[in-house]
Design brief:
The complex is a heterodimer of chains A (101) and B (220). Chain A is mainly α. Chain A is built from five helices and no strands. The longest helix of chain A is centred in the last third of the chain and has 21 residues. Chain B folds into two domains: 95 residues, RNA polymerase sigma factor, region 2, helix turn helix motif (Rna Polymerase Sigma Factor, Chain: A, Orthogonal Bundle), CATH 1.10.1740; 91 residues, Arc Repressor Mutant, subunit A. Chain B contains eleven helices and no strands. The N terminus of chain B is likely disordered. Classes of the chains: A mainly alpha (101), B mainly alpha (220).
């Protein structure tokens, strides 16, 4: 493809596969998934499929915070066993320090 | 019983962990009393943190019985070692790191080698996320509720679920996850990306399919 006017040279086109290979790094370390590379930006602007994919992945990452609030509760038996363990610790300590009163 | 290799040192958490673990009213006083051996303070700390610790164990293990055992272990370790907590990081961050390390040690003891996620717990072709090139499906945005997401996360293969829960839910950074799982940072990023792709795929399926995927995962 040759440039036919004086406009700046457009970014090289990339395939969906090439774009999607970059996604793990785009989203890493709290990234928003918004690319800075002109090739990736150009692809995102023109590819409906990849832009939907980026929106969905960002949405899933955002929605994950919904799971931070716990909904599950351990049975009462767990606390009973913890208390038994702590009591056993105290008994062992007392056994090791018989002079302690 | 002392478990070898469990890290009890306080590592300064990333900013996301401070944001996600704000101080809880009454917690500081309970910690100080617990250090002095006050049984009531132990009870209070358990009440404050039991649900989050148990939920974390349940998500990582996918099994109620094991999750309860690990919750018990985590709090016993906590109460035995609370004297070494110096308040340099949020208490809940310290507790969650302790819990994650215990669960990982438990999984290693069971023979699940976490050294190389790709080689050992990489899902089968059936479970791997599908490549997305060219597909035109409905978007997820605005359509996923907590219950659907919880169910989809539960049906993820273990390696994907582990990294997704640690990074996206618990807020650990990739370098922290890499240290905990003894894998590379790149491996952690890759697993997370595949986990999100798999979740997208699961969440776009009818609910019945997600349930079936969950049953399949539970049967493994």
């Amino acid at each position: 493809m040759t440039s036919q006017n004086s406009n700046p040279k457009p970014p090289a086109t990339i395939s969906c596969a090439e774009f999607q290979e970059q996604l793990p790094d785009l989203f890493a370390s709290g990234g928003s998934g918004e690319p800075e590379d002109p090739c990736l930006v150009a692809h995102l602007k023109t590819c409906e499929n990849c832009s939907a994919l980026v929106r969905d992945l960002q949405y899933i990452a955002d929605q994950a915070s919904l799971l931070l609030q716990p909904t599950h509760e351990p049975s009462d038996n767990v606390w009973k066993k913890i208390q038994e363990g702590l009591n056993s610790d105290r008994t062992d300590e007392a056994g090791q320090n018989p002079s302690h009163s | 019983m002392e478990q070898q290799g469990l890290r009890m040192t306080e590592i300064k958490p990333g900013p996301s962990l401070f944001k996600r673990n704000p101080p809880i009213a009454g917690e500081a006083e309970a910690i100080e009393s617990a250090k002095a051996g006050d049984a009531e303070a132990f009870s209070k700390l358990y009440a404050l943190h039991k649900r989050r610790v148990y939920t974390l164990c349940l998500r990582m293990l996918g099994n109620v019985s094991e999750a309860e055992d690990m919750t018990q272990e985590a709090f016993l370790h906590l109460f035995r070692k609370i004297g070494s907590f110096r308040g340099e990081s949020a208490f809940s961050t310290w507790l969650h790191r302790l819990t994650v390390n215990l669960v990982l040690m438990h999984l290693r003891k069971k023979g699940l080698n976490l050294v190389s996620l790709e080689e050992t717990i990489n899902p089968s072709d059936d479970d791997a996320p599908k490549r997305d090139f060219g597909s035109r499906d409905p978007q997820l945005t605005g359509s996923v509720d907590r219950v659907a997401l919880e169910r989809a996360v539960a049906s993820l293969p273990p390696g994907y679920r582990m990294v997704f829960v640690l990074h996206d839910v618990e807020g650990f950074e990739h370098n922290e996850i890499a240290t905990m799982l003894e894998c590379s940072t790149g491996n952690s990023k890759s697993q997370l990306h595949k986990a999100r792709l798999k979740l997208r795929e699961l969440l776009r399926q009818p609910e019945q399919s997600i349930r079936q995927a969950g049953l399949k995962e539970a049967a493994k």
